């Protein structure tokens, strides 16, 4: 068969810091509160307690919220902000930045949506013995729109 051999020098750039950003959910509706937390760590994954900045951008890249010099004694910063009743719909992003240029973006969506609603009913005998291995009954599920 064919054999290929090549040698190259590689430069390893060790990452000195990372930031992790988390939201309480991926999709929000207008008027809801976005809950988030951010954590900065060093190369050994130990929390960094130096201040960092967070910006929130809408789908048109307009800066909607900014926080500067955020710190906390345990290294985790928690922030909340409320979306307006008529925000731009689409992909928003949270951008967290450490001094020295380390940054991360966490996307989230703002959409008009309705959670599916349904009702589950379970019918069984009014009693059963704890020695019984099975329980007889019937179950039905009904969606908001009357479908079963």
What would you say this structure looks like, in words?
The model has no long low-confidence stretch (mean pLDDT 88). With 148 residues, the protein is an all-beta fold. It has strands at residues 17-23, 27-28, 33-42, 52-57, 63-70, 76-82, 90-97, 103-110, 118-124, 137-143. The strands form 3 sheets. Strands 2-8-7-4-5 form a 5-stranded mixed sheet, with no helix packed on it.
> What spatial form do the alpha-carbon principal axes imply?
extended
- Number of E-state strands: 10
- What is the radius of gyration? 25 Å
Strand order of the largest sheet: 2-8-7-4-5
Low-confidence stretches: none
The portion of residues assigned to helices is under 10%
Order of helices and strands: EEEEEEEEEE
Binned strand content:
over 45%
| Average pLDDT metric | 88
Largest sheet: 5 strands, mixed
SS field, number of helical segments: 0
Topology (SSEs and partners):
Elements: E1 17-23, E2 27-28, E3 33-42, E4 52-57, E5 63-70, E6 76-82, E7 90-97, E8 103-110, E9 118-124, E10 137-143
Parallel strand pairs: 2-8
Antiparallel strand pairs: 1-3, 3-6, 4-5, 4-7, 7-8, 9-10
What labels describe this entry?
three-stranded antiparallel β-sheet; 47% strand; 148 residues; five-stranded mixed β-sheet; mainly beta
How would you summarize this macromolecular structure in one to three sentences?
The protein has 148 residues and is mostly beta strands. The protein is built from no helices and ten strands.
């Amino acid at each position: 068969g064919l054999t290929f051999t090549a040698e190259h020098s590689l430069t390893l750039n060790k990452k000195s810091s990372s930031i992790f950003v988390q939201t309480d959910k991926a999709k929000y509706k207008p008027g809801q509160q976005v809950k988030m937390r951010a954590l900065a760590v060093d190369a050994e994954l130990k929390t960094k307690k130096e201040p960092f900045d967070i910006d929130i951008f809408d789908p048109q890249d307009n800066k909607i919220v900014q926080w500067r010099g955020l710190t906390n004694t345990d290294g985790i910063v928690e922030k909340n902000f409320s979306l307006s009743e008529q925000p731009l719909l689409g992909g928003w992003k949270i951008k967290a930045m450490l001094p020295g240029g380390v940054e991360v973006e966490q996307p989230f969506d703002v959409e008009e949506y309705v959670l599916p609603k349904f009702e589950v009913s379970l019918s069984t005998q009014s009693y059963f013995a704890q020695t019984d291995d099975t329980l007889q009954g019937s179950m039905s599920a009904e969606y908001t729109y009357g479908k079963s």
